[in-house]
Each structure stands twice: as C-alpha cells, then as structure tokens.
Amino acid sequence: MNGAESLVETLAGHGVExxxxxxxxxxxxxxxxxxxxRIKPVLCLFEGVATGAADGWYRMRDAPASTLLHLxxxxxNGLANIxxxxxxxxxxxxxxxxxxxxxxxxxxxxxxxxxxxxRPLSHWVRRSVSASAVAPDAAEAIAKAAEHPGxxxxxxxxxxxxxxxxxxxxxxxRIGVLPRVExxxxxxxxxxxxxxxxxxxxGEPAMIIVANKATRGRALELVGRIAAASGARLGSQxxxxxxxxxxxxxxxxxxxxxxxQAMAFLQGIRHLITVETGEPVxxxxxxxxxxxxxxxxxxxxxxxxxxxxSEMAFEMLLDALGASAASALVQPRIxxxxxxxxxxxxxxxxxxxxxxxxxxxxxxxxxxxxxETMGHTMGARPHDLINNMGGSIGYAxxVATGAAxxxxxxxxxxxVGDGSAMYTIxxxxxxxxxxxxxxxxxxxxxxxxxxxxxxxxxxxxxxxGPRAASMIDIDNPTIDWLAMARSLGVPGMRVETAEDFTQxxxxxxxxxxxxxxxxxxxx
Length: 523
Hints:
This protein is about 35% helix and about 15% strand. By secondary structure, it is an alpha/beta fold. The chain has a seven-stranded mixed β-sheet with strand order 9-14-13-15-16-18-17, with helices on both faces. Strands 2-1-3-4-6-5 form a six-stranded parallel β-sheet, sandwiched between helices. The chain has a five-stranded parallel β-sheet with strand order 10-8-7-11-12, with helices on one face. Helix 20 (about 500-510) links the parallel strand 17 and strand 18. Helix 1 (about 5-15) runs parallel beside helix 6 (about 130-145), helix 9 packs parallel to helix 11 (about 310-320) and helix 12 (about 345-355) runs parallel beside helix 20. The protein is globular.
C-alpha cells in the first residue's frame, strides 16, 4: 500500500464519503487510489467550485468532505470559498498535492509556500514528511475537521509521500487511527444559563439570536419553546449557515443587512442573548454609521459559545424558567397569491413563496434582489435556507452543488446575481455531469447592483461617474446565460414577468437534473 492508498483508506474508514477534486500531476497516485469505491470522486473545473461544494456538503451532512487541490496555486484558487466555509463553521479536509520533497530545492515553477497560503484560513495545517506518516496525519485532519464547530484542516501531500510504501513490516495496510477526543459537545456554563434565566424573568425586552446548530432540528424547537414561554423575540444574523424554516417550524426573524434598518429593528431591545454567534455587527463600517447595531444601553449575554451544545443549553434554560412543558412557536402556512406584472424584489419573493417545493434546499446569493425574500417566505412550504457567511461572492453555485450531492432526493434552488454567478459558473458543468437536482436562478440586471448602493452609502458620491460606473456595470457585452448554461450541459429558459418566473420555478422542480432560469431585471 502506498501513501495515497493509505490516505484514501483513512478518509473512507473515518466517514469521509466524497472528494471534490481538481487534480494535477503531483496527485496522480491519489487519483489511482480513488478507484476505491468507498469514496465518490467529483471533478470540479475550478478549485473554488471544489471548496465551495465541500462547504455545501458539510452544511447538509454535518460531516466533512475532502477536496483535492493542485499545489499552492490550486489552493489559492480555492481560498475564497474556504474563507466562506470557515465563517460558516463548515468542516473540510483539504488535500493539497506538492512536489516530491527532493524536487523542492530546485525551485520548480509551481513551487510555493503552501503552508503560508493555507495557515490564515485553516485551523490545522500539516505536511506529511513520509509515506508512513500520511495515514496518521490524515486521521488527525479528519478529527480536526469533524470538531464542533467544524474546522478547516489542510494536509499537504508531497509526491514521494504519495507514491512511497506506507505499509508497516509485514505489508499490513496502514490506516490512520483517529486521535482520542471527548464525546459530544461541550456543556454550557450553568451560571450563564441562570443569568439568562434571570434576564428573561425580568420582563425587559430581549432577543435570542441563534446561529449554526441552533437554527435547526430539536435545538430550534426548544428555543421556540423558550421564546413562547418568556416573550423574548427570536432572531438570527442576516446570514445563517443553515436555517430550517417555513410552515410548521419555529419562525426566526432576520436582522436586516442595511445599518439604518438593522438599528431600527433592534431599537428598544435591552438584552441580546447570543447562541453560537456574537452580537450583531455591520457588514462594513460607513463614514457616518456605527459598527455595532444594538442600542448603546443594550446588554449582550452569551448563552452558548460556538463550541458548546445549544440543545443542552436550551433544555437547562427551560428547566431554569420552569417552562419545560411549554409549546414551541410554530409558523403557520401562508398561501401566497400568484404574483403578476414586472419582476422586482417583492414579486420575486411572492413567486418563491408560491413555488418553493416541500423540503427544498434554498441557497441564497441574490444580494440586492433577494433581500425581501426572507420576510415573504416565512410561511412557505418547509425548507432549509443556506446563506453566504463570509461575504466572498461566487459561493452559491458551488455550495448548491455540494448540497445536492449530499441530499440527492431533495430539490436545491440556487439564487444568485449575475455578477456573483460569473465567479464560479463552472459549477453547472459538474451539476450536469452528476445529473444533480439543482435549479439555478440567475437574476440578470447586468451590473454589480449592490455596489451602486454601496457607492452612495460609503460617501463616495450620489452616483458613480462614467469611469466608476464602468467598473460596476457588466452589460458591455451582455452575458448570454442560456448559451452559457447550454454549453455546460444545462438546459434553461429566460423569463421577464412574475407570472413566467413563478411557472418556470415550479416547472424546474419537476426536472430530474439541473435547470437554469435567467430572470431578466430592468431598471
């Protein structure tokens, strides 16, 4: 057994089911080892698609995927979506091939400081120094990635460590053993729970802000019971890694993105109780606006730290409140009328409220177009919502690809602006190759519309001048999204009205494979 084979055996043996790969010369032995049927290899035509897909897989499976990246430049191409994954607390095992160690001294063209590139966005980085070290190193990487919250682990695999003999004397297979870790998540501090109980018993206006694992499953139902019993509002940051929402689930209010609206939303709240997140902070600092969104006299109380168990904390808090028998808040189904007329943020939100299918996965990178969506889809059919936690655009189509591979029995709706879509449009090719049930909705306004608003918000001027505007508009030439999708193996259609958009989304959910909808927007 060589080092690459021991690596794949270790990955498979410890629950890594899939590898999103963009390989090069140094990784040929790893490719050969992927003949192992226990790991599914998925080819991605850009490394940012591979790392984004691994993020999407984790968000739906709560288990890390592997990526395979080619040397430092391949890792660099994947870093933007590694950043997004890190912000979403997604676990990921990045395997980065490198030159054989004896070759490094010659400074070949692809040589680089891979550790230096990986370290700022990785929680764990290691270079395997021999074939026999690969399996135990891989086991440590998997253990780190699988922690709560999820971590980014990067294992550098030199060519000679990959092709060298990894077997111990006697030729027995070498498979890494996971390091011993404490079972379960860390229990919350009982004193903090009692402090929060006192705050909630005081009757002063309070909001519980939930994130990460607290936005789904039993944890969400429990915090809905706390909100019902105490009268506290239940909210989330503007972006969430994954939120279970819709009819029959506990409703969660979304703190607005724009600073004035967010401050108005939080006005009068005396206590912010945070769960696996921090206090609300503006996405950017503006010349005349604050960074913190809460009232100046509001207190922030940590109920659950990011590495603690939300479900356990909510059970403790219900006991402290004497409300263990309370019923949870439940969102009723809202039957939204079919919208008509022009496509705009409101009609798009109403169309999605009508069209989102039962148990769908909605990946949202619609930026300006989709800011109205959350409020108007609260009572839609039950679905999961995934947001971009890190703000680096080009995340949606890769994350949707990984989510669809993780949950092939569910339809994934991917909403993305045309500017963002161009970053990682190669995702469509992988979706076609894997016949994935993904509907990609591209909102085509032929510009980076969000930057037009930010230009004024930042105080750069009332409106961009001709040269500044040329750096924001992407209509010269206009992108033909249907031709683009068709060239990558994905059928599609263009719509310009709310009626056609609604019908197109509904029809796309009946497709077996991927489908693209270009929603044409006009000023």
